[in-house]
Amino acid sequence: MSVHEHPEAVLRPELSFDRTVSRRLVHRFGLEEVFLTDFQSLEKDGPFLAAARLPRAHAYYGDHLGHPRAHDPLAVFECVRQALLCATHLHHDAPTGTKAITAECRLEITDPAALLLRAEDERGYDLELRGRVDLAKHHEGVLSRVVHAVEVQLCGAKVGTVTVDTALRPPAVYEKIRLKDRSTTPPMSDQLRHREGPSDLPAHLAGRRDADNVVLTRAEPGEGTLRALLRIPVDHTGMFDHPQDHLPGPVMMEAARQAGLLLLTEEFGRTPAKTQLVSLTAGYRRFAELDSPITVHAELAPGADPREGTYELTVEFRQEDAAVARMELRFAATERQSGKAHSGEVPRAL
């Protein structure tokens, strides 16, 4: 008796959600920070599959005001990010020690409702990631740049897509790049003596419950704008899982989200608990240093209309009078608000 497998079963092997992959494959130190559970390379430098399990309880990703009603979009991004780090090794054969430098990335939540937690579904934390390689460039036979596009599914429903443009460099080359805009060796985060104190911003205005997760301070709202100082908690294991010589991009993405939520509260009286990030595009121009202040500048896109239920804005990060990164964000109202938020009389948060 012979058994003939369906072609798709061969092309798409069953993914496992039973245990996490080695933390070394996703460049994590803490086991509790590893969300990736499986990786399957279907064709070298071609399509691949991955599985991840969103954390049920997490001091950082589970702290947003929508929890436990809905999953955090940035937790989804982190799962994809880990899958792509794993891909550099298992899919592209990058040597151990290779540095992955993000140039651009985009998170697009096409169906926010798909992130709602379904208590009756035991798969409600399981992400299936379907990736492809849109661009691959090699230098002397070694992959030097790759653009990945990943479709994200949760419980069989498409959540959205993530695209990441990554440069891959050997350690020696990376060290030269890091010294390009510096006269001294950059300090590691675990070597910094200064530890950030608490923010003066109430946590709920940043979409958080725990003040330790607020990364903005000294916020100054303007007419359709917001300026704040970036708070860098180098001892926060959710943001700095391991020593870093620069500010990680995901921390800047969180800062951009918090700036956006605060600006929407100031301008339209939006409640952060009823406002969800649905799109974020980030472009990184240079490394964000840990030993110099970084300011965050948010500005509403022209023509923002609260009656549409969606809001677009830009956020720029500046350090020593130079632009470090620029991000474009789109938020959507998860529930309509009544009263002052739509009457023209907007309550001020700060």
TrEMBL record:
<feature type="domain" description="A-factor biosynthesis hotdog">
    <location>
        <begin position="25"/>
        <end position="165"/>
    </location>
</feature>
<feature type="domain" description="A-factor biosynthesis hotdog">
    <location>
        <begin position="207"/>
        <end position="331"/>
    </location>
</feature>
<protein>
    <submittedName>
        <fullName>Putative gamma-butyrolactone biosynthesis protein</fullName>
    </submittedName>
</protein>
<dbReference type="InterPro" id="IPR029069">
    <property type="entry name" value="HotDog_dom_sf"/>
</dbReference>
<dbReference type="Pfam" id="PF03756">
    <property type="entry name" value="AfsA"/>
</dbReference>
<dbReference type="InterPro" id="IPR005509">
    <property type="entry name" value="AfsA_hotdog_dom"/>
</dbReference>
<feature type="region of interest" description="Disordered">
    <location>
        <begin position="182"/>
        <end position="208"/>
    </location>
</feature>
